[in-house]
C-alpha cells in the first residue's frame, strides 16, 4: 500500500498553498469574509436600534424646535384619538404622531373605529356637523380639538378653478396648535378693522387658517365702538382709504396700553395721513410710492414683483431656508424710520429690496428708467416696532408690524406662495406673544428645481464628466499593474 505522503495529488495540493497567488487569494478571501460578517453584525445591530434619518427636503418627519419646546411643557395627560379602523390610518400622519408619542410619555394614542363606536365622537362634535373619518382628536385637561383629515394638508386652487392640488403638509402645525389649546383652553381674540374697504381674511379663505392657530377672528368698526378689552391683535389688511381722526385716536389709546397692530398696505391707498400720524408716534411711516426692482435676482418676470431680503428676526427665521419658496411681494410700498422718535422705541427692518431698486413716487410718470424724483434703494418693505424695547415685569409693550404690500395674502391664496402665508401667521403669532407657534408652519411638498449658474455648471460638469471617470480609470489601472506581477 502506498504511503499517502507520496501521493502526488495530496503533495501537489499542499505545495499549492505555499505559492504567492494562493497567499494573496486566501488573504483576499479572509478580508471578504470579515467584511460580510461585519455587515451582518451591523445589520443586526441597526435592526435592533431602528434608527431613522429624515432625508426629505422639507423635513416632513421631524419635529421643529418650537414643537419640542411645547412638548417639554406637557406635564399632564393628553390623549390622541384616531377616528379610523385599525390598519386604515394614514402612514404619513401616523409617522408624525409617533414622534409626539416618543417625545413625551404623557401623550398616548388610541384608535377608535367610528363604525363600532358611533356614540364616541358625539361628545366631541360641538357643531353637530359630524366628525369625518380619519380625523384626529387631541384632548387635554383644558379642552380638546378635532383635526379634520383635510386640515392636515394645504391646498391651492389650480388655474382656471379646475380642482386643487396639495402644496404642503400641515400635520405638525395642526397637532402642536391643538396641544397648545388642550393645555391652556384659551383662544386669543384677533380683530379685523372694517369700514375702509379692507380685504377680509374670510374672503381670502384665511379665516380657517387663523382659527386653527388658536385665534378667534372678529371684526371691528372703530367708528361705532372702541377697541374691545379682549383684543389681542388688530389687523388692518389692505384698506382702500385712510382712517378717520377719531379712529386714529382710539388706535393710539389702544397702543398706549400695550396693544398690538398688524398693517398691510400699499400704494393703492394713496394718502395715509391719519394712519401715518398714529405710526409717527412710534417713529415710523409708510412712504408713498411703488417699488421698482432692477436686480433680476430679486424679482420674478416684472420689476414690480419683489423677492425681498429677509432680516434676522423671530418672524423671518423660519423663512430663511433656501429650499423653500421665497416671499413674493407685488406693488410694494416702502416703510421708513422718522428722524424723531422716543428713545424707548425699538425699530427693526423685516424685509428690504436690493440696492438697485428704487421707489417711484410720481406714479403719473411712466418712464422705464429711474427719474430724479425716485428714491434710491435699498428700500425697507417691512418693519417691526416695540415700545418699550425692554420689558420689566408685567409692563405692557406695544408691538407693530408693518408690511408695505396689501397683496401679500392674495398672492398666497391665488399663487400658492406658502411663504407669504407663513410671514403673515408668524407676524400674528409674534404680536400675540406666542413664539412657540412661529416656526411650526406647514412643510412644502414642492420639489424646487436646482438652479445653477454658468460657473457651477462648468464645475459640476467637470467633476462628473472628467474627474470622477478619470479617478476610476486611474484606480483600475494601478490595480491592474500591481496584480499583473503577482
Report on the structure:
This protein is of the alpha+beta class and 486 residues long. It has helices at 8-16, 20-49, 65-72, 91-103, 171-184, 207-212, 245-256, 273-280, 408-415, 418-431, 454-483, and strands at 78-83, 107-112, 136-139, 144-147, 153-157, 164-169, 189-193, 216-220, 231-237, 260-264, 284-287, 290-292, 299-300, 302-306, 309-310, 329-330, 334-337, 346-352, 358-360, 375-376, 380-387, 398-403, 443-444. An 8-stranded mixed sheet has the order 8-7-9-10-22-21-18-15. The chain has a 4-stranded mixed sheet with strand order 2-1-3-4. α7 (245-256) packs parallel to α8 and α9 (408-415) packs across α10. It starts with 7 loop residues before the first helix and ends with a helix. The mean pLDDT is 82.
Task: Give structural attributes.
single chain, alpha+beta, Glutaredoxin, Rossmann fold, 8-stranded mixed sheet, 4-stranded mixed sheet, 11 helices, 23 strands, 21% strand, globular
Amino acid at each position: 500500500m502506498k504511503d499517502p505522503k507520496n501521493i502526488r495529488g495530496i503533495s501537489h495540493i499542499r505545495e499549492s498553498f505555499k505559492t504567492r497567488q494562493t497567499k494573496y487569494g486566501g488573504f483576499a478571501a479572509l478580508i471578504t469574509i470579515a467584511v460580510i460578517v461585519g455587515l451582518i453584525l451591523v445589520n443586526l445591530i441597526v435592526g435592533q436600534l431602528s434608527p431613522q434619518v429624515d432625508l426629505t427636503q422639507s423635513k416632513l418627519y421631524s419635529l421643529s424646535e418650537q414643537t419640542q419646546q411645547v412638548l417639554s411643557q406637557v406635564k399632564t395627560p393628553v390623549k390622541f384619538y384616531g377616528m379610523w379602523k385599525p390598519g386604515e390610518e394614514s402612514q404619513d400622519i401616523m409617522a408624525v404622531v409617533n414622534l409626539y408619542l416618543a417625545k413625551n410619555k404623557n401623550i398616548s394614542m388610541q384608535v377608535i373605529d367610528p363604525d363600532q363606536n358611533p356614540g364616541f365622537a358625539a361628545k366631541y362634535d360641538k357643531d353637530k356637523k359630524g366628525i369625518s373619518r380619519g380625523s384626529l382628536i387631541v384632548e387635554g385637561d383644558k379642552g380638546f380639538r378635532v383635526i379634520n383629515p383635510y386640515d392636515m394638508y394645504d391646498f391651492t386652487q389650480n388655474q382656471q378653478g379646475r380642482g386643487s392640488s396639495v402644496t404642503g403638509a400641515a400635520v405638525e402645525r395642526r397637532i402642536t396648535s391643538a396641544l397648545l389649546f388642550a393645555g391652556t383652553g384659551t383662544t386669543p381674540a384677533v380683530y379685523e378693522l372694517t369700514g375702509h374697504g379692507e380685504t377680509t381674511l374670510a374672503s381670502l379663505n384665511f379665516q380657517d387658517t387663523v382659527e386653527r392657530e388658536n385665534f378667534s377672528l372678529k371684526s371691528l368698526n372703530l367708528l361705532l365702538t372702541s377697541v374691545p378689552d379682549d383684543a389681542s391683535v388688530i389687523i388692518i389688511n389692505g384698506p382702500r382709504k385712510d382712517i378717520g381722526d377719531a379712529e386714529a385716536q382710539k388706535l393710539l389709546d389702544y397702543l398706549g396700553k400695550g396693544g398690538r397692530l398688524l398693517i398691510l398696505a400699499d400704494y393703492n391707498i394713496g394718502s395715509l395721513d391719519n394712519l401715518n400720524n398714529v405710526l409717527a408716534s412710534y417713529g415710523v411711516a409708510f412712504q408713498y410710492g411703488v417699488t421698482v426692482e432692477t436686480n433680476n435676482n430679486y424679482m420674478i418676470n416684472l420689476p414690480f414683483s419683489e423677492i425681498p431680503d429677509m432680516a434676522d428676526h423671530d418672524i423671518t427665521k423660519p423663512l430663511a431656508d433656501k429650499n423653500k419658496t421665497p416671499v413674493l411681494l407685488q406693488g410694494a410700498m416702502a416703510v421708513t424710520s422718522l428722524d424723531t422718535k422716543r428713545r424707548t422705541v425699538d425699530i427693526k427692518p423685516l424685509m428690504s429690496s436690493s440696492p438697485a431698486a428704487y421707489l417711484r413716487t410720481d406714479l403719473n410718470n411712466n418712464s422705464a428708467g429711474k427719474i430724479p424724483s425716485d428714491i434710491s434703494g435699498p428700500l425697507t418693505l417691512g418693519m417691526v416696532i416695540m415700545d418699550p424695547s425692554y420689558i420689566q415685569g408685567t409692563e405692557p409693550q406695544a408691538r407693530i408690524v408693518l408690511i408695505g404690500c396689501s397683496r401679500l395674502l392674495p398672492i398666497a391664496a391665488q399663487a400658492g406662495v406658502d411663504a407669504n402665508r407663513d410671514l403673515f401667521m408668524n407676524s400674528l403669532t409674534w404680536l400675540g406673544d406666542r413664539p412657540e407657534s412661529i416656526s411650526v408652519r406647514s412643510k412644502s411638498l414642492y420639489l424646487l428645481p436646482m438652479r445653477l449658474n454658468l460657473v457651477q455648471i462648468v464645475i459640476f460638469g467637470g467633476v462628473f464628466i472628467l474627474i470622477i471617470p478619470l479617478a476610476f480609470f486611474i484606480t483600475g489601472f494601478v490595480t491592474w499593474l500591481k496584480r499583473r506581477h503577482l
